[in-house]
UniProtKB/TrEMBL annotation:
The chain crosses the membrane at residues 23-45, 65-84, 104-124, 151-173, 202-222, 242-260, 272-289, 330-350, 362-383, 419-448, 460-478, 490-509. Its main location: membrane. This is Betaine/carnitine transporter, BCCT family. It comes from Lachnospira multipara. It is found in: Cell membrane. The lineage of its organism: Bacteria, Bacillati, Bacillota, Clostridia, Lachnospirales. It is a multi-pass membrane protein. InterPro entries: BCCT_transptr. Belongs to the BCCT transporter (TC 2.A.15) family. The keyword Transport applies. Signal peptide: none annotated. The keyword Transport applies. Keywords: Cell membrane, Membrane, Transmembrane, Transmembrane helix, Transport.
Length: 523
């Protein structure tokens, strides 16, 4: 028995040693050092760092803004082509393989990994932010168009980014059986041996930096709302930044615990999050008192968005009368691009056994459908109170009220508002946890030179990434960055990453074409 135990220990040590040998320390340590350096600079030089971010954002977002819009529209068109062309029949796995997860479990994990708690934050208040923008008056009725743009910014093009790349990564992992879960590997059909050289390393480092920029934006935008809710519930007068840091740490503990329990933990947490999310939406829809307005205005907004989709997707405001696309549409497309480093990899991983057509159409049905429900129900509840019940949400925000206080006013107008506050913060924590456990898992895979099928990253590497994901958000918090400067991190990171996304799409079509030709020859 003693010899058996010693043999097990020896095998365990060998396994750990082999796992350590596979780790790409450059991809792991360089981003860590870079993010820690940025974090220190943001905290020590808050004014200077914010000024530099603003100037860089202006160059990319204003001078080169059309670049983001063209890529966004192009990726959406590619998604339609993939779904309804000959490529749609390709199974992400063996040709007779069946999906591992049910549609609901698959959709829950896909939805929660791709959106985080931002969806609740913006669903409440985005319509009011747009309502005071001069571009709404240019279009006509403020109330009408203010509820259209949230649907546009969060639906078809955002999910197109995710689903097109998810298909490319799923094909790479499950059909071609490649053992490197990285952006560079997805470019191999075009780059060839250059994938293993300096160019491939550059693509992977760029991807990791973009990932950290995206997570920083997400955490920095919505966690202060959670801090505001905690302060309201318990009557705390502590600095909101301190409460936000505590929330970040609690959220980190939750998603770290979930991740270390593997895919089962991620799936359970995702389904729990979805149940709470849809339960909350149903409560507001049924008991909020604005059911009729929500249905009618939601239906009208959806129709306007679809009818004017290409016009909205190509609007550049060339005379800069309002800077609306520069401030919002371009930011959002950049935001989805940086999230593409992880979310599509995770979606591609869990989509094994589904065809490309099923993945794209199912993703649009569950992802876009759930997103639209959130914005239609929560946004139109608040707008209904403004139009029908004399609320002053728009006027208060226009007079200088911040987004967090605006959301608190909206929630306090609901029945059983204290219960709603508790439900909102629990759902936000679960959204963050279900997003960041999947992100940390995929980021951990980036740390490995190779990972065989069904092989998982070492738990210590997973733990490092769980911690790393909250470092930059805390730094941005203490640097007192404005919303514009928080958004800048995504816009800057997305510029070079967009070229890589295009390269991945071209590589996928080249590889998928060859796959179909080879399969045809076999028949």
């Amino acid at each position: 028995m003693e010899g058996f135990v010693e043999d097990l220990e020896e095998k365990s040590e060998k396994k750990d040693f082999d796992s350590v040998k596979k780790i790409d320390w450059m991809i792991t340590l360089v981003p860590l050092a870079f993010i820690l350096t940025l974090a220190v600079l943001f905290i020590i030089f808050p004014v200077e760092s914010n000024n530099i971010l603003s100037k860089i954002r202006f160059f990319f977002g204003d001078t080169l803004g059309s670049y983001y819009l063209i890529i966004g529209l192009g990726v959406f068109i590619v998604s339609i082509v993939l779904a309804f062309s000959k490529y749609g029949d390709i199974v992400l796995g063996g040709q007779d393989e069946k999906p591992k997860y049910s549609f609901f479990a698959w959709g829950s994990m896909m939805f929660t990994c791709g959106l985080a708690a931002d969806i609740l934050f913006y669903s409440f208040n985005e319509w009011a932010v747009y309502a005071i923008n001069p571009h709404m008056k240019e279009l006509g009725d403020v109330n009408t168009w203010a509820s259209v743009f949230p649907l546009f910014h969060w639906s078809l093009i955002p999910w197109a980014f995710y689903l097109v790349l998810a298909v490319a990564f799923g094909f790479m992992l499950h059909v071609r059986k490649r053992n490197r879960q990285r952006f560079s590997e997805a470019c191999r059909p075009v780059l060839g041996k250059k994938t293993d050289g300096i160019l491939g390393r550059f693509i992977d480092l760029l991807s990791v930096f973009a990932l950290l920029a995206g997570t920083a934006t997400t955490f920095s935008v919505a966690t202060p709302l959670m801090a505001t809710i905690i302060g309201d519930l318990f009557g705390l007068t502590v600095d909101r930044r301190i409460i936000t840091v505590v929330i970040l740490l609690i959220t980190c503990v939750v998603y770290t615990y979930s991740l270390l329990h593997g895919m089962k933990g991620i799936s359970v947490l995702a389904k729990l999050c979805i149940y709470l999310f849809f339960g909350f939406l149903a409560f507001v829809f049924i008991f909020g008192g604005e059911l009729k307005f929500t249905i009618e205005n939601g239906l009208q907004s959806l129709g306007l968005m679809i009818n004017h989709f290409f016009e909205l997707a190509t609007f550049t405001d060339p005379t800069r009368t309002t800077n609306f696309p520069q401030d919002w549409t371009i930011y959002y497309w950049a935001y989805w691009m940086v999230w593409c480093v992880c979310a599509p990899f995770f979606i591609g991983t869990i989509s094994r056994g589904r065809t490309i057509r099923q993945t794209i159409i199912g993703g649009y049905a569950f992802g876009v459908g759930s997103t639209l429900l959130s914005f239609i129900i929560l946004g139109n509840y608040a707008m209904g109170k403004e139009v029908n019940a004399g609320a002053n949400f728009i006027a208060n925000y226009a007079s200088g009220q911040d987004m967090y206080s605006l959301i608190m006013d909206i929630i306090h107008s609901m029945p059983f508002s204290t219960l709603v506050l508790i439900l909102v913060i629990v759902t936000m924590i679960l959204f963050y946890a279900t997003s960041f456990d999947s992100i940390a898992l995929i980021a951990s895979c980036y740390s490995y030179k190779k990972l065989e099928e069904n092989e998982k990253p070492h738990k210590f590497i997973q733990f490092i990434w769980c911690i790393l994901l909250i470092v930059l958000p805390i730094a941005l918090l203490f640097s007192e960055s404005s919303m514009s400067n928080i958004q800048s991190t995504s816009i800057i990171a997305a510029f070079p990453l967009a070229l890589v996304i295009v390269l991945i799409i071209v590589s996928f079509f080249k590889d998928a074409k060859k796959f179909r030709e080879d399969r045809y020859k076999e028949k």
